[in-house]
């Protein structure tokens, strides 16, 4: 029986000066390198396939399979790009991971690049996290100095260079093809697929783009074996993952557990919902994953379990809201975010998110009519699946799911002539601070 | 005024990190901000010249990303997260309080009063991946976790007065221009300041340590030979 929490990536985080090469090496870091170099590249890909690792950036695509799509007969250089543009609302796992344990990412990049035969890798980190960028820059520097990067690594004959690249503020660059545009020095607007990046990615060359946590999981798979990784998790969702609890819980934070843990179990560990309040709604994997409610406390948090409940596992970004929170206000704010972050390339998303805000804002103020709910759903229908990327799709998730579960609350805004909630009651300091 | 030789050299150095030099544009724009305090017409011309693309193409990129500024920002740029989770937890109240206190709107520079050592600008920002520390304020892109309206006011006053202010999960705050230089890929030697992780980041790990929970022992997991699993 596997333990309820299984710290692997987070295991370094309470170590003194955990971000340094010395600390990482003392914990057994970089031991996966020689093991990987002793295997053929295809054997490394097979091991990652056998482990069952699925992309940790939200989509859950099998990582080893993604690597195997790189056409090795293509004479162009191959590239590995790490998506460290963590920006999905609620998602806050990669940032502490890179701050506390940047070397596990660097080791993962080396092994993964070796497997896909890339000699150049990029770590694209969102620009708004200065100290995290410092830590990753320093880890790469240290890895060069120790001979883990550069020419003929560990005498293997394999060469690799890593460039740490800072973004500049654009949620859309978390979308892999928009990220490539940003990395090519352009506006971050998604590309039409096919061709997929595996065939024509960075500089139209074969490119693998993986999330930070996916790449950081690779050293443990190589060091401990695919069967070890697959011994955790559920049948189709193997391994461990970082679950991020935020909002109205007593102990918000990062909980690394096998996939398939339930929110009830996580809430127990986190001390439950804050004192005197009850769970109202939550996101399983960021704001782009449809809302769930207290009736979903026992669904296994794996790709299949959350999918069967009508949502998506996403990035395991569990944003917890208690009964003091107005769902209309929450959804409006997310919708304003999507409108702001729409890159403007596709009409349904660019115009659609603008209209969603108009309609929702009117409802939130208690104006409009019940027919506006149907209008909203119709707008969602005209956005979903009609653009190059999933940003517009994500924008519809909180709206359609909140209307499904909280239709009466929308109507209450109309009968009340505005928001019936006292927003002050939702704050972190509610009940603790006397407001003058 | 045209950019100086040192800056032009560093811009070329950034472009040289990449197989195709245009890839350097985002960090190059960070660098010009560290020198000019914003993206100026001269900076756009300089990037265009080095990358051999048009000024319109550089401008198109500079206007797409929110971190690039076409107007002056403060020595300390304060970003209050008002995405849903932080807003609900109090980010809205913090942003309102700071707007009122600094007498500015969104993305504006507050007046530098007589006696102020440094200037402060204010912006509301989107989710900054620190939701377990909500409500979160960023100052020059360093984390200021678990803020309150009153604490945020005290913080901006300390910054204006020139007192040292430390990130809750990072080093002593540097100026916005210094921060932009790090983003351009020129480290400032502050990497070893600050903790490995904030308290919330360690919530699960602490429980695992208390209860002796670990990932399985690799030696105890049976190795499945290829083909055997299908039998």
UniProtKB/TrEMBL annotation, chain A:
Pfam families: Complex1_51K, NADH_4Fe-4S, SLBB
Top EC class, one word: translocase
Transmembrane segments: none
This protein's record includes keyword Metal-binding: yes
Highest taxon of source: Bacteria
A GO term for molecular function: metal ion binding
InterPro entries the record matches: NADH-UbQ_OxRdtase_51kDa_CS (IPR001949), NADH-UbQ_OxRdtase_suF (IPR011537), Nuo51_FMN-bd (IPR011538), Nuo51_FMN-bd_sf (IPR037225), Nuop51_4Fe4S-bd (IPR019575), Nuop51_4Fe4S-bd_sf (IPR037207), Soluble_ligand-bd (IPR019554)
Enzyme Commission number(s): 7.1.1.-
Reaction it catalyzes: a quinone + NADH + 5 H(+)(in) = a quinol + NAD(+) + 4 H(+)(out)
Start and end residues of each NADH-ubiquinone oxidoreductase 51kDa subunit iron-sulphur binding domain: 328-373
Gene3D superfamilies for this protein: 3.10.20.600, 6.10.250.1450, NADH-ubiquinone oxidoreductase 51kDa subunit, NADH-ubiquinone oxidoreductase 51kDa subunit, iron-sulphur binding domain
Keyword check for Transport: no
Keywords from the named record: 4Fe-4S, Flavoprotein, FMN, Iron, Iron-sulfur, Metal-binding, NAD, Oxidoreductase, Quinone, Translocase
Cofactor annotation: FMN; [4Fe-4S] cluster
Function: NDH-1 shuttles electrons from NADH, via FMN and iron-sulfur (Fe-S) centers, to quinones in the respiratory chain.
Similarity comment: Belongs to the complex I 51 kDa subunit family.
The protein, known as: NADH-quinone oxidoreductase subunit F
Lineage of source species: Bacteria, Bacillati, Actinomycetota, Actinomycetes, Propionibacteriales
Gene: nuoF
TrEMBL record, chain B:
Residues bound to [2Fe-2S] cluster: 81, 86, 127, 131
EC number: 1.6.5.11
Class of this enzyme: oxidoreductase
Recorded superkingdom: Bacteria
Co-factor note (free text): Binds 1 [2Fe-2S] cluster.
Cofactors (names): [2Fe-2S] cluster
Keywords on record: 2Fe-2S, Iron, Iron-sulfur, Metal-binding, Oxidoreductase
Molecular function terms, GO-annotated: 2 iron, 2 sulfur cluster binding; metal ion binding; NADH dehydrogenase activity
Family listed: Belongs to the complex I 24 kDa subunit family.
Protein name: NADH-quinone oxidoreductase subunit NuoE
Organism: Nocardioides humilatus
Source species taxonomy: Bacteria, Bacillati, Actinomycetota, Actinomycetes, Propionibacteriales
